[in-house]
Write a structure and sequence with these properties.
Radius of gyration: 15 Å
CATH superfamily: Ribonuclease H-like superfamily/Ribonuclease H
Structural class: alpha/beta
Largest sheet: 5 strands, mixed
Number of domains: 1
Helix content: 40-55%
Distance between the termini: 48 Å
């Protein structure tokens, strides 16, 4: 089984507002891919989730993916909440609809072809890949903001 490390981050200037996401995907042999992009009107959580989805889609089939994210929403969603949401028809325990269920369903679909382990890291705490993703995501959000301002 191929093992890869995925580091992700999202950024939003306002919530909602212009946003950006980024990922770095690296295998043990040093092969690396990265991607970043922005959206005009979004939320930080949507950008965090989009970074994960795009990174998972870049991972090879049947890979073992170690995801490192600074979003507790992402990590808890994957590790603690997702299975229950699915069992309840994309409803939370209080029977309210899951926010961002479209993106969570995309993550769930990727999890069907991968083995995913999600871990949390503190943001802005010196984790080099997390810091790089943060810069890329923020740069994308700033570019979108500048474009919108004309």
């Amino acid at each position: 089984m191929k093992r890869v490390r995925l580091v992700t981050d999202g950024s939003c200037l306002g919530n909602p507002g212009p946003g950006g996401w980024a990922y770095i995907l690296r295998d043990p042999h040093g092969s690396e891919s990265m991607e970043a992009a922005g959206e005009e009107r979004t939320t930080n959580n949507r950008m965090e989730l989009t970074a994960v989805i795009r990174g998972l889609r870049a991972a090879p089939d049947a890979a073992s993916v170690l995801l490192c994210a600074d979003s507790e929403y992402v990590v808890k969603g994957i590790n603690e909440w997702l299975a229950g949401w699915k069992r309840r028809g994309w409803r939370k325990a209080d029977k309210k609809p899951v926010v961002n269920d479209d993106l969570w369903a995309d993550i769930d679909a990727e999890m069907q072809r991968l083995t995913l382990t999600a871990t949390w890291t503190r943001g802005h705490a010196g984790h080099a890949e997390n810091e790089a993703c943060d810069r890329m995501a923020t740069d994308q959000a700033l570019m979108v903001q500048q474009m919108l301002q004309g």
